[in-house]
Description:
- Helix content is 65%, strand content 0%.
- It is mainly alpha-helical.
- The chain has one domain (23-169).
Amino acid sequence: MQLKEYFRKMRGSTAGTPPRVSNSEIVWSWIGALLGMLAVGWVNSRFFAGTDFTLLIGSYGASAVLVYGAFRSPLAQPRNLVGGHLVSALVGVVCWQLLQDMPWLAMAVAVATAIALMHATRTLHPPGGATALIAVIGSPEIHAMGYWYVVVPGLVGPLILLLVGLLVNNIPATRRYPEIWF
């Protein structure tokens, strides 16, 4: 490939802007995200407040966008949602345990390895990359969780988002979730 062709690819396509979704879709996405995040927050405050555990991590905001706003995407399906966070949480903890003396290396290896393993396990979920990164760059409390980070928040949070997604996304006749389970 010539250099000119290489840079030409960076212009993008001429496809235009994404299509507008209906007001109903906007409202249902909002309701799903509100209830999903409320559920995660409530479980965190009810069961984990005052402990060394936390259920709240930033990558759940991105998962909410997929599960409630782009629920037909392969990246939003249950296997990807739960598996992507689970695989990535494990990778992040392992990378922190092995490379904590070089956090700049630990974070790069964690995100790159999480992506590779999500591809290999067919669980690609972009917020999973953030879950791996949080395990490395997180607070001392996150680091103190050790492998519990894989369970709380790595598994419990996505399961809550999934449960709310199943309940809310199937209320309107125009929505169906999931498209595929496995």
